[in-house]
Specification:
The protein has 168 residues and is an all-alpha fold. It has seven helices and no strands.
Length: 168
């Protein structure tokens, strides 16, 4: 069940992490997962919708944390379709989708906890300067973003440079 990882090279190829990095990440991922599950349980008890104790019910195809973490890491390393991901982990594509959307926020919280997430926004120029302290080279990803044009023709023409013509 799950990925059959033979060595460190294959671990890096499938998850993007070495075995040592994976072993460092696993206990923190596990703690955050348990905290999230406990909070979900308590919220369910308060709202009156919870019927089972934590850990009750069917165990699923990813019963352990050592199965859950490679599942989400391999998705973000290779971005397969849910059909392919489900096949790799012996589950239906709908369960692969469900598991991924359940585990992704936990991986995100784990990386935030370890301070491994990059900065996405800066409130002030001083925050940017502090983040760049000691950096020799800066790469900027300048991806184009769609501009929502006005339906009013006169306003739309103000923003039209005429450089790109889309098929109309």
């Amino acid at each position: 069940m799950g990925l059959q990882i033979r060595d460190d090279r294959q671990m890096k190829a499938l998850t993007g992490l070495s075995q040592a990095q994976f072993d460092h990440l696993l206990p923190i991922f596990s703690d955050i997962y348990q905290t999230t599950q406990q909070k979900t349980y308590e919220d369910g008890v308060k709202s009156g919708t919870r019927r089972r104790q934590p850990g009750g019910g069917v165990k699923g195809k990813l019963p352990t944390m050592a199965d859950k973490l490679p599942f989400v890491l391999s998705y973000y390393k290779t971005y397969p379709t849910f059909d392919v991901l489900g096949q790799q982990f012996e589950m239906a594509r709908s369960k692969a989708n469900e598991n991924l959307h359940k585990l992704s926020p936990i991986l995100y919280d784990t990386l935030v906890h370890l301070e491994l997430m990059p900065y996405r926004e800066f409130a002030t120029p001083e925050d940017l300067k502090a983040a760049l302290q000691g950096v020799d080279r800066l790469l900027i990803d300048a991806t184009e973003r769609a501009y929502h044009r006005s339906t009013d023709h006169a306003k739309q023409r103000e923003h039209d440079s005429g450089k790109k013509n889309s098929i109309r």
